[in-house]
Design goal:
By secondary structure, the chain is of the alpha+beta class. It has 3 domains: about 130 residues, Gyrase A, domain 2, CATH 3.30.1360.120; about 90 residues, Aminomethyltransferase beta-barrel domains (Alpha-Beta Plaits, 2-Layer Sandwich); about 80 residues, Beta Barrel (Elongation Factor Tu (Ef-tu), domain 3). The protein is built from 8 helices and 19 strands. The strands form 4 sheets. Strands 10-11-12-9-3-13 form a 6-stranded mixed sheet, with helices on both faces. β5 and β6 form a beta hairpin. α2 packs across α7. The longest helix is centred in the middle third of the chain and has 13 residues. It is globular, with a radius of gyration of 21 Å.
């Protein structure tokens, strides 16, 4: 899952800290405010950390993200109304990346639901991992739409650590600490097992465009695992590299590339809407109208012609008229090219279309390209 979180404005009061804060600070990490948390933006440098994930393995502390446990009879049936994706098709040990929609089909959050299965008594269990910035909003929305009887909802955000080990060597580095064969878990699969001799939730998911696992454990185990991975040579990584990695992989950042005022069809997430397998769900009528009439804008990938970097909120021009805005942009370390995401009118969203981006008062050409910008070798 990125980082799927968006930075929030500065807040009053002390910033929250994850259980790994002391270890991270002792390593000399450069810290920043992020969604009300004091988080590492980088350790040895964004480019170095980025390339470590692309070539070997890196580890991220993502304990700030929201972690919701749900249990009860008819759980999947109740959740169906809240999401455009068909959760009923999930088998135990499978997961679904999806979005939470408001009645206008605006994206309230993007998240992952992990379905653990059903016991002989018909009790189903699952986990949601959600963005830190939207945790309270998500919790209120989900709980408010569930029937109060027979269901358990626990917010475990403050009681669990969450680490992401990502990269082509991630599994090899993690395997010595886990009793099960990690290669037997498919992509977007998950299981309950042990790590370092203690209970652990292991999911083959991530937010970097690379293979790897996200591991949910007790705080003490998270601290032990962090130390063990670093001793084994895994590179500690901050939010800076997480952002460049996810952008190269064409993955959206909530609060920048999508928000309450953008729909899945506009944000390039139409594949999450399972039209034929679903009944009614919140926001469906609006999406049906957009499907029939077409959307007026789309999120596209842009490649700058040159090394000028398009940043968030920079204006996009066509024929000397502003037509859209950059939502995310960077100099891609792997590609050595300046790339960006932007909303543009649908008639300008075709691959190969040329537009211009205003950077410090001047217009620089960019070309609409296919996403993702980077795809790992099979």
């Amino acid at each position: 899952m990125d980082d799927r979180d968006a930075p929030t404005p500065a807040i009053e009061g002390p910033l929250k800290r994850t259980p790994l804060y002391e270890q991270i600070a002792a390593q000399g990490a450069r810290m920043t405010e992020f969604s009300g948390w004091e988080m590492p933006v980088q350790f040895t440098g964004i480019t170095h950390e980025h390339q470590a994930v692309r070539t070997t393995a890196g580890v991220f502390d993502i304990s700030h993200m929201g972690k919701f446990y749900l249990q009860g009879q008819g759980l999947l049936a109740q959740l169906q109304e809240l999401f455009p994706s068909d959760l009923s098709r999930l088998q135990p040990g499978e997961a679904q990346y999806t979005v939470l929609l408001n009645p206008q089909a605006g994206i309230m959050d993007d998240l992952i639901f992990y379905y653990q299965g059903v016991d002989p008594a018909g009790v189903e269990t699952g986990w949601f991992i959600v963005n830190a910035a939207t945790k309270s909003k998500d919790k209120a929305w989900i709980v408010g739409h569930l029937e109060p009887t027979g269901l358990t909802f626990r917010d475990e955000s403050a009681t669990k650590s969450l680490l992401a080990v990502q990269g082509p060597q991630a599994i090899a580095q993690l395997q010595p600490f886990v009793p099960i064969d990690l290669t037997s878990i498919p992509v977007f699969g998950h299981c309950l097992s042990e790590i370092l001799g203690t209970p652990a939730f292991l999911a083959r998911t991530g937010y970097t465009g690379e293979d790897g696992f996200e591991i949910m454990v007790e705080p003490e185990t998270g601290q032990h695992l962090w130390r063990s991975l670093l001793e084994a040579g895994v590179t500690p990584c901050g939010l800076g590299a997480r952002d460049t990695l996810r952008l190269e992989a064409g993955l959206g950042l909530y609060g920048q590339d999508m928000d309450d005022h953008t729909t899945p069809l506009e944000a390039g997430l139409g594949w999450l809407v399972h039209w034929d397998r679903k009944g009614d769900f919140i926001g469906r009528s609006v999406l049906e109208q957009q499907r029939q009439a077409g959307v007026s804008r789309k999120l596209v990938g842009l490649q700058m012609q040159g090394r000028n970097i398009a940043r968030h909120d920079y204006l996009v021009f066509h024929n000397d008229k502003p037509v859209g805005k950059i939502t995310s942009g960077t100099m891609a370390p792997t590609l050595q090219r300046a790339i960006a995401l932007a909303y543009v009118p649908t008639n300008l969203a075709k691959v190969g279309q040329t537009v211009e981006v205003e950077i410090r008062g001047k217009l620089y050409p960019a070309t609409v390209v296919k996403k993702p910008f980077y795809r790992r070798a099979a």
